[in-house]
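Tokens as discussed.
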């Protein structure tokens, strides 16, 4: 505060730089608060508007440090009050910076911005209306951007009163014919998309006004094109040309206009956003959008265009599905769009060299398959398998090359290699997602096709020598296949069971969870008689894991729940076939309960009730030794999400029966050891 104004300006600039390059350190408990307070102080430099404006820009960088808005919330009020004052300063640069900062804070704290909505929206819209002339183009664009960010942050209910007037203003501004260099063009597109995200189906009346210009921009080929090297090239403003030779094809020239490419990318992304948010409301434009987007899935000249095109396909299919289901019509159009896009899915899957982008392609392809009304044709599955096999083989090749490089690499290079291998593991997981989508539709008919192509590659990933990511992905993949195919997958289940048992105690939580859940699936696939011979050995392996000291730790909680589910299913299945083994295990299983898994927990507790309703069941222990634990478990789950209504009603009846059998004195002693919440649930 006491330093020379230039020193203070440089200090603010340094804070912004530190936020960009040392984000992890800035968000630490030691630095987050002091840095935030410094920026608030700088924002209040009323005598020096340039310092306040620069502090607002540094605040944008500061907000980006925090992925979690909760961390920013304690400083938000002081920051926003200072920014409100800065918006009122009659200085274009200061207002522009303040708008950027308000957008940054709103996007982080999201619904908490509702408390400041009335304080800011009138000021922002006032700038929109009053800032006239070419000199204020950037200021108006920032104000438009800010309106969209605020709308997305506060939600439909808060923004609804201003919705129509803001949209009318935006469309009127767009209709006046903005110049090519006017930043309001992109700002309006982004703002409309965010307002659509905020208002959902209420935005539908404006679709016919905002979508046609986007379709035109997305289809425009002016951004990049190829021509023969001998053709004349007029060096127009904004265009750049690169000449090169292609063996067998002669001289070629690539002509690129970055501004047009960016406009095309923005348009494609906006179309994706509208299809995603409006669903059935986007139906009138699905066909036109698909005809543009499908060819762009393999667009060579711009990565964001390809990404938006690929990601849009499942959204467009969903629009068609929503419309058909509402009209009670067959989903033929959904299948037709998938068939139209299929070959370009295959091409981009093979051509894409960036593993991060390949993950997005696989995810989109999986989502598209999930929307199909029935199984894929065999020829399509075979083609998909060939491409997935290529993807996995290329991943193995890249990993082997890195392994050779790793031996002589320094620490920095090794860290980069580790990160690249982790991304490869993530990509393999998405290959598994595609397989799951296909097998869920085809069931047992899928197995021969899988076995002849992908099985040999994925089975290798179950080797102890594979990376943890490969092991986890392969375990999940075989879990999904066995679960979808049930009895048809007996051969896989028999082969997979001993492998899964080897991994149930693994230190990696993802491996432990996938292996533990898979054991239960194997039991169901093999059936009562088929699994009988494995019962004792399997339970002997699983029980120590769910009863271990770290079983309920934060790291292993989910894995433990998955293994408890498997034990529960095995006990129910083998109750009659392996009475002695089941009887010995029941008290130990009880010791691991209750299950706090929202999906499978109720299933486990229904199985528990089946055992408890038999008064002679070994689960109670000799002389009802385990009765206290039984009541504790029942008191923890009754009237919660871990027990459905039927189970809760049965618990009530069972407790009354137990109380009558034990007598008031004995029951009172047992209940005394329960928590107040458990007693309230039971009595």
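Sequence:
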């Amino acid at each position: 505060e006491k330093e020379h104004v230039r020193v203070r300006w440089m200090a603010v600039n340094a804070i912004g730089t530190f936020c960009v390059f040392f984000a992890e350190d800035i968000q630490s408990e030691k630095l987050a608060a002091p840095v935030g307070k410094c920026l608030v102080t700088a924002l209040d430099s009323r005598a020096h508007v340039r310092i306040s404006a620069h502090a607002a820009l540094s605040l944008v960088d500061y907000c980006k440090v925090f992925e979690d808005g909760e961390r920013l919330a304690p400083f938000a009020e002081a920051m926003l009050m200072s920014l409100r004052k800065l918006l009122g300063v009659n200085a274009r640069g200061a207002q522009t910076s303040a708008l950027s900062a308000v957008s940054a804070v709103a996007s982080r704290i999201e619904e908490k911005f509702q408390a400041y909505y009335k304080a800011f929206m009138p000021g922002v819209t006032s700038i929109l209306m009053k800032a006239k002339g070419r000199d204020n183009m950037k200021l108006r664009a920032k104000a438009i951007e800010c309106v969209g960010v605020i709308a997305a942050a506060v939600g439909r209910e808060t923004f609804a009163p201003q919705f129509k007037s803001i949209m009318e203003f935006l469309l009127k501004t767009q209709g006046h014919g903005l110049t090519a260099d006017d930043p309001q063009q992109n700002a309006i597109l982004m703002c409309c998309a965010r307002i659509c995200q905020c208002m959902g189906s209420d935005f539908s009346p404006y679709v016919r006004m905002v979508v046609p210009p986007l379709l035109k921009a997305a289809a425009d080929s002016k951004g990049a094109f190829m021509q023969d090297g001998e053709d004349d090239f007029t060096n127009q403003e904004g265009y750049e040309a690169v000449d090169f030779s292609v063996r067998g094809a002669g001289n070629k020239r690539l002509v690129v206009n970055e501004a047009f490419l960016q406009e095309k990318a923005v348009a494609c992304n906006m179309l994706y956003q509208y299809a995603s948010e409006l669903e059935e409301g986007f139906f009138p434009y699905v066909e036109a959008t698909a005809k543009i987007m499908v060819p762009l899935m393999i667009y060579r000249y711009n990565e964001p265009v390809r990404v938006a095109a690929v990601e849009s396909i499942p959204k467009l299919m969903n629009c068609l599905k929503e419309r058909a289901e509402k009209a009670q019509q067959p989903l033929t159009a959904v299948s037709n769009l998938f068939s139209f896009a299929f070959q370009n899915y295959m091409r981009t899957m093979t051509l894409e060299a960036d593993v991060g982008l390949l993950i997005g392609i696989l995810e989109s392809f999986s989502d598209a398959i999930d929307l199909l009304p029935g199984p894929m044709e065999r020829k399509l599955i075979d083609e998909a398998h060939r491409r997935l096999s290529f993807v996995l083989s290329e991943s193995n090749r890249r990993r082997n090359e890195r392994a050779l490089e790793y031996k002589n690499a320094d620490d920095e290079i090794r860290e980069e290699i580790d990160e690249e291998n982790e991304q490869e593991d993530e990509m393999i997981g998405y290959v598994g997602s595609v397989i799951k989508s296909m097998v869920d539709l085809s069931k047992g008919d899928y197995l021969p096709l899988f076995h002849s192509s992908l099985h040999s590659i994925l089975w290798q990933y179950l080797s102890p020598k594979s990376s943890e990511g490969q092991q986890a992905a392969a375990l999940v993949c075989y879990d999904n296949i066995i679960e979808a195919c049930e009895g048809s997958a007996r051969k896989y289940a028999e082969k997979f069971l001993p492998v899964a048992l080897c991994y149930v105690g693994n230190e990696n939580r993802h491996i432990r969870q996938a292996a533990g859940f898979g054991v239960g699936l194997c039991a169901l696939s093999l059936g009562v008689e088929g699994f009988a011979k494995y019962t004792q050995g399997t339970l002997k392996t699983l029980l120590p894991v769910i009863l271990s000291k770290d079983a309920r730790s934060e790291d292993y909680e989910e894995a433990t729940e998955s293994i408890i589910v498997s034990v529960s299913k095995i006990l129910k299945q083998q109750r009659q076939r392996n009475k002695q083994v089941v009887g010995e295990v029941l008290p130990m299983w009880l010791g691991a309960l209750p299950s706090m898994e929202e999906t499978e927990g109720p299933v486990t507790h229904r199985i528990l009730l089946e055992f408890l309703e038999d008064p002679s069941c070994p689960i109670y222990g000799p002389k009802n030794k385990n009765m206290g634990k039984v009541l504790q478990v029942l008191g923890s789950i009754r009237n919660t999400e871990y027990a459905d209504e039927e189970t809760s009603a049965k618990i009530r009846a069972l407790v009354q029966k137990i109380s009558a059998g034990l007598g008031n004195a004995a029951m009172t002693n047992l209940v005394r050891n329960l928590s107040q919440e458990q007693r309230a649930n039971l009595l």
